[in-house]
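Query form — protein NADH-quinone oxidoreductase subunit E

QUESTION: What is the three-dimensional structure of this chain?
INPUT:
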Amino acid sequence: MFELNPLNLPGAQMQHIIMLVVAGVLGFIIGYVSRKQTIRQLESTLLNTERAVVDCYRATAAVVNKEDEETIVLNRIRARASDVNYSRIGTATFAEADDLKQIVGIGPFLERKLHAIDIYTFRQIANFTEDDIEQVNDIIEFFPGRIQRDNWVRQATELAKKK
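ANSWER: The structure tokens for NADH-quinone oxidoreductase subunit E are given below.
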């Protein structure tokens, strides 16, 4: 009867090679796209985890004694730290902290308030604009206009130069 063997057709081997190459290229493209998507998901998870760790450190440092009035104030201030524009004033860590009490008008408790919103250095205060001054003044619950009257920006600029 009929013998229908596809391998006996002319060009059958070439068709198989072409299909194999196309399947390989498609597999590579799908794998590449899938890998990129997995990398994006992992980077997002890593970023969220890093934020959670930072929040965890802040939370453990903040909750010393819930009855302590100072702790309550610092927790309230710390909750508003994200309102500060760090891209303009710069960022710093506690390890880089200057003694902000050298600025006239900043005492120990006010320094702790500034640390609660991640302001640690003279350089950060020296970079304050009028908007930053109003915002920080509101966040740390300080007397309106006091930062300008004590001229923190000028003092911080001079202290940063000496450092």
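ADDITIONAL NOTE: The first helix runs from residue 12 to 62.
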